[in-house]
Amino acid sequence: xxxxxxxxxxxxxxFVFIKPHAVTDATKQLVSSGLEAKGMTILxxxxxxxxxxxxxxxxxxxxxxxxxxxxxxKPHQLNVPAEKFKGKFGIGWQEALDKGVVLNAADACxxxxxxxxxxxxxxxxxxxxxxxxxxxxGFYCGLIDTVPNQAPKYVFNGFFMNMRNDYVKPGAEIxxxxxxxxxxxxxxxxxxxxxxxxxxxxxxxADSMRGLIYSNWKALGLPSQxxxxxxxxxxSASPFEALAxxxxxLGAKLEEDAFAQSLIAAGIxxxxxxxxSVDPVVTYGSEQxxxxxxxxxxxxxxxxxxCIAQAMMINGKAGLDPLPLAGAFSVxxxxxxxxxxxx
Length: 343
Known about the structure:
Blueprint: E1 12-18, H1 25-37, E2 41-49, H2 50-55, H3 58-62, H4 64-72, H5 82-89, H6 93-99, E3 102-104, H7 105-112, H8 116-128, E4 132-136, E5 139-144, E6 153-156, H9 160-168, E7 173-181, H10 188-196, H11 209-215, E8 233-235, H12 239-250, H13 258-265, H14 270-276, E9 281-285, E10 290-294, H15 295-299, H16 304-315, H17 331-338
Parallel strand pairs: 3-6
Antiparallel strand pairs: 1-7, 1-8, 2-7, 4-5, 5-6, 9-10
C-alpha cells in the first residue's frame, strides 16, 4: 500500500473507492487505468477489509447522517420532533422512551432477533403499511410490529444495517485511491459527471468509471449488473468531503494534510473542520436571507480554491459585510474579495 499524501500545490484531491460488490482484480485494473487515462494522478491506493471497516465503524462515519441514528446514538440522544412522532404513531415521544419501545437499528436487530436482512425486510413491510415517518434528511422512524412473538418497537433508520452489512460481512473489502488532478483541466463537477459518472450507472457516460463497470460487469467478475445502490465506485463530492473521507478511512491528520492546512491558514479552526467532517447543517448568507443547508451540499462540486473561499464565508471569516443578496450568496463576490490573499 502506498502511503503518500497530496502534493503541496493546491490541486483537486479526491478519495475514491471501489464498493465491495465490485472489488475484483479486473475492476481494480479498469479503475486504475481509467483514472490515469482521464488525467488523474494516483497518489495512494490500498485495501480495507471488512474487519477494519467494522472495528473502526468506518462505514458508519462515512454515512454519519444516517448511521448516527442507526448505530452510533441511542434514541434519547436524538433530536426527535415530539409532535411529529405523536402525530404519526399516537404515542408521546417521552412516553415511548420511558416504556423502552424505541430502538436504534443496531439494538433492534439484537432485541428482535433479526439479522441485517431480516430487519430490512421488516422495515420494507412498515414502509408498505405507511408506518414510517421522515423527520429530516437521513432521519426516519418506523413502527416494526410484524415480528412474530415480539412486541412492537419504534426503530430508527432500520434500513441502514443492510447497507452496512455489505461492507462488514465476511470477505467484504473496499479498494481505495487518493487521486489528484489539475482543476484548470478538469473541474470537480466534470470529475463527478464525466470521470466517475452519475449515481445511476445506466445513465453514465460509456467511458466513465461507473459506465465502464456497468457495461463490462460480467467480464469484470461481478455477481450482478450494477444499479443505483451498487454502482461500482464512490468518489468525494468536493475537496472538503474528500478531506473528511481521508480523515475517516485513512486516519489522515489535519496537521499533515495539505488541504486541511490550507483551510486552517484561511481561518477555519481545526475544531470546526472536525465538526464539519460529519456534515452538519450550517447557516450562512445574510441575516435577512439566511441559508440553512448541509455543509457537504454547500461545498459540492467546488474546486479547491473555491471550496476554501466558500468555507471561509460559511465560517464568517471572509472579511465581507453581510451579503446584500436576495436569498443567495455571490460566489464571484467572495472570490473577488479574497483576490490577492495567499490561500
